[in-house]
Amino acid sequence: MNEKKLGLPSVIATGIGLIVATSCLLSLGIGSSAIGLTFIISMIIACVINILFALSVSELNTLMPNLTGGLAQYTLACCGPFITIVVMVGGYLFCNTLVGSAECAMFGNTIASVFPEINIPASIYCIFLLVLLIMVNLNGVDMFAKIQNIVAYSLIVSLFILAILGTIKANPATIVTQPAVLSSNFKDITSLCGLAFFLFIGVEYIIPISNQVKNARKKVPLGMVLSLVIVLVMQIFMVLGFHNYTPWGALGESTTPHVLYGTLLLGPIGTYWMAIVSILAVTSSINTVISALAYISSGMAKINLLPAAFMKTNKKGAPYVGILASGGIMIVINALGLSTSEELSFLILTGCVFWMIAYIVTHVNVMILRKRLPKAPRAFKVPGGLTIPIIGIIGIAWMIYNISSDIEVRLQIYKLCLIVFAILAVYAYIWVKKIMKVKLFKAFPVSKVMAMENDWYHVYHNPGKIRLNIEGVEPNNKK
Amino acid sequence: MELSRVEIITNNSKIESLRNALGRFGISGMTVFQVLGCGVQMGTREYEVEQRTEPTLLPKDMVMLVLPTKEVPDFLKFVSEELYTGHIGDGKIFVSQVTNVLRVRTGEEGYEALLLKE
Question: Which of A233, A340, A333 is nearest to A286 (CA)?
């Protein structure tokens, strides 16, 4: 029996580490520069909507615990393979790739901003980093495994320190005098909720550690909510600091607002402090994204939602098809150029829409399972019946509708999303009908989805097709 | 006071955590049997392709305990959440009425026979 070691502080630390990415700071800069301190209202709305999602995903986790595929497996058991492939496999992998590309662009932008005298385009740094990380992953080496948490936490602690220093006006010499609020129009505030949503996205990544948490039924949902609230508080301080030290115009144009803020607050020390911490954080984040996407793809192939090629591993045991695919797409996106904050913002918002749709489907999953398995034991149940999932769905749909204040940008985002979903729908239709040979919208029984998690399931169901690394002999009574 | 007998049949691997959980619930007495059995799947394991046509007996544990009938609903909820993994084989719980309990040493009967006394 595995000993459960993690307490609430570890859950919160992991949650914050996973939610905060360097590209979030870009969204924070863009949002703050657009309307000033009222962006805090957009952030609070987005945080509340994310808390509702955290509650829903916690309930699904208690009903279908210890699943490696997470959202996709919940959806397979609720909405059937077609929606799972389109939204949770294709859409989710696609948005992670987009957001990973934006994160990667932050690496190039940070180096370019620290060393402006070197005349190399920022995208070259990104491509170099991506090639390096692809090679590292292909060698089956997780060089960041041990320092990943340290790096993530050093970024967060640095941000907290800088945010509070800025809020209390620690350096009176460089204080900027500017209006606190640029717009208090409710429409402007709501149109930035989509951008603000990105600041809190990714809380579902806590789920995989839930089987190591003591009293997980209480601590996992509580840890998720507290992580989101702490991130909100930190970012509110950051916005207040921006108001005191960075001119709104410069903040909006900067592709590295954290470095700009560090420079204006503490001079060269601030520049190098933020640059070193963010470069380390970005590198470890992208490494995680490439590795995670490859393993998620492999897991999806295991349950027959993606081609079996994604399960193939090289001599080092690395799922090379997924590594090359996710890393390759990120290289292409970065090679196309992500040099301005508008381009990065567009990429982030588009990724956000896919992510939000996945969140909507998760709320729907809760409602379906409430109807289908009303008496199944739920160690955690979202309070208030179906009210919270319904409010969550309406809130996210409203944010998708208001994804950008610029109508042209909004239409471009919708267009790109529709094109990607159309391609995924064609793939999903052919795959479900011809390969899986099941009904498009017929949900898999929960017990079958749970059974698919067992490695022996694939030994029995795909004899000779899959080479799995199962230790020991077949269990007599293993479930 | 009305008493009920609860018989919990579950996977061997769950018995230690169940024993600890029962202690947390306030259960002080229980009897555990090592048994063989199968349910409606006739012993088919969740990962197997074909449903078995003849019953195959699998090793299981059965926990038997007696408690006041009014505590049974809360107890069932607690045990269900404790045993739940979502996989086939989580177990079955049987509840039945107990007409009397007799403590041999003292001759006490009913609920009195279940209580710890000097």
Answer: A333
Q: How far is A182 from chain B (nearest CA, A)?
A: 52
CATH of A13-444, one of 3.30.230.70, 2.40.50.140, 3.40.50.2300, 1.20.1740.10: 1.20.1740.10
Q: What pLDDT, in 10s, does the model give residues A13-69?
A: 778 877 777 778 888 998 999 999 999 999 999 999 999 999 999 999 889 887 766
Please state the rounded mean pLDDT for residues A366-390.
92
Q: Which residues contact A460 (CB under 8 A, 6 or more apart)?
A: B47, B48, B49
Residue B42 contacts residue B30 (beta carbons within 8 Å): no
The shortest C-alpha distance from A235 to chain B (Å) reads 38
Determine if residue A318 is left, alpha or beta; phi over 0 gives left, psi from -120 to 50 gives alpha, anything else beta.
beta
* CATH number among 3.40.50.300, 3.30.1490.110, 3.30.70.120, 3.90.1100.10, domain B3-42+55-114: 3.30.70.120
Give just the sign of the alpha carbon dihedral A191, A195, A199, A204: positive
Q: CA of B77: which chain A residue's CA is closest?
A: A377
A473 has a pLDDT exceeding 60:
no
pLDDT band at A233, cuts 50/70/90?
very high
Per DSSP, what are the bridge partners of residue B64? Answer: B7, B31
**Does the distance separating the beta carbons of A446 and B47 come in below 8 Å?**
no
Interface pTM, i.e. ipTM: 0.82
pTM, rounded to two decimals: 0.86
Q: Of A450, A459, A476, which is closest to B86 when you measure between CB atoms?
A: A450
Structure tokens at A290: 């490439």
Q: Find all residues with CB under 8 Å of B33, minimum gap 6, and list them.
A: B61, B62, B63, B64
Asked if A476's CB is within 8 angstroms of B58's CB, the reply is: yes
**pLDDT digit string, tens, across residues B27-79:** 989 999 999 998 888 888 887 878 888 888 999 999 999 999 999 999 999 99
